[in-house]
Amino acid sequence: MVKFLVLWNTPADPVAFERHYREVHIPLVRQLPSLRRYTAGCHATALRGEPYYWIAEAEWDTMEALQKAFQSPQGQAVSQDVANLAHHAQVRSMVYEVEELESAHD
């Protein structure tokens, strides 16, 4: 599995940011081809360092599927909308492959 993680700092106008995110961005992301799962959380509490305001994760089965999703017209629309949201808040993002680890109790 591959995850795309997006971390948003606190926006200058949280109401405008959340309205755009919920009304525009979420529907765009949900249209990405082969998207397996999409989650978001807000108002995180930091245990170390500064908290992020909004955190989103999108999952695909493979890196190739993720790459194809963002090469699609839907993926281009999502990328362009991130630029719109970036006017409200700074954003960081990363892609990583998930490795299943056994728990300490196994």
Automatic annotation (TrEMBL):
Pfam families associated with the record: EthD (PF07110)
An example molecular function term from Gene Ontology annotations: oxidoreductase activity
Domain EthD, residue spans: 11-86
NCBIfam families per UniProt: EthD family reductase
Protein name: EthD family reductase
Organism the protein comes from: Ktedonosporobacter rubrisoli
